[in-house]
Amino acid sequence: MMIYLPIAEVAVNAWIVLGLGGLVGILSGMFGVGGGFIMTPLLFFIGIPPAVAVATGANQIVASSVSGVLAHLQRKTVDLKMGAVLQAGGLAGAFCGVALFNYLKSLGQVDLFVTLCYVIFLGVVGGLMFIESVNAWRKAKSGAVPKRSRHSPIHGLPFKVRFRTSGLYISVIPPIAVGFFVGVLTAVMGVGGGFIMVPAMIYLLGMPTKVVVGTSLFQIIIVTSASTMLHAITNQTVDIVLAVLLLIGGVVGAQFGTRIGVKLRAEQLRILLATLVLLVCGKLALDLLLEPSELYTLATPGRS
């Protein structure tokens, strides 16, 4: 069933879009990521313009994250206080990210910039996460208990706050900084930032894995909502028809993903997430290196 997308100005198969939304919803529930690192490139692959894919993909992340958070709240695996601090930094980052996105769009370089960002960030993060996760999995199989120091340079920073759900007493500066960086990525790349947020919460902030997924999803909701609104107001690049299809698939998929995630060990979840990140990175890098089938395209002035 073909359906026309008025803002993207292309016709797509509605069932394919619903399927993409469901797939990303499953990933959201399993890994605590918004799934934008998968969704946005997939929208590129089916012909959605990058500017529309970034803005609309962020909107879909909101729905799947809300669905996933509700499931985690029932299990009491969400640190609301830590999530609020991360959101504060994320909102500031989203404003800066949209400003950068608009500037690059005016120069006509936003498509290349977004793709390069995906290749660099996904390659580095996916590679490091995969190596660490495989090592942790091997130690777990051998019976060794992996040790993660609870003390790091961040414990000497001022403005300390106690986060009881996570069992931490640390400065709010690192969480705000992490939130800010992820907010910028959300606005520029159309991602929830979970592929950065989840490792940062575990290895930088020292949060227990059991509360990381739910807290990451909680943070994603506000930041991606703000990013979507800013894109809609300043760029008019949010396609409502595309967003609704993605929302429906994402909400349903997140419920299944949450059930799958609780049945897997933390090391297994991180290995799967790292593998997905590297696969998407490889596809995007290949597209950049291969010569396109059409060397020239006609575009309406003012649109990316």
UniProtKB/TrEMBL annotation:
Where does the protein principally reside? membrane
InterPro entries, per this entry? TM_pro_TauE-like, TSUP/Inactive_protease-like
Q: Which domain of life is it from?
A: Bacteria
Give a Pfam family name: TauE
For this protein, the parts annotated as crossing the membrane are 12-35, 42-62, 82-103, 110-131, 176-204, 211-234, 240-257, 269-286
Key words of the record: Cell membrane, Membrane, Transmembrane, Transmembrane helix
Record has Transmembrane as a keyword: yes
**How does this protein lie in the membrane?**
Multi-pass membrane protein
> What are the subcellular locations of this protein?
Cell membrane; Membrane
According to its record, what are the GO cellular component terms?
A: plasma membrane
- Family named by the database record: Belongs to the 4-toluene sulfonate uptake permease (TSUP) (TC 2.A.102) family.
By what name is this protein known? Probable membrane transporter protein
Which species does this protein come from?
Tritonibacter multivorans
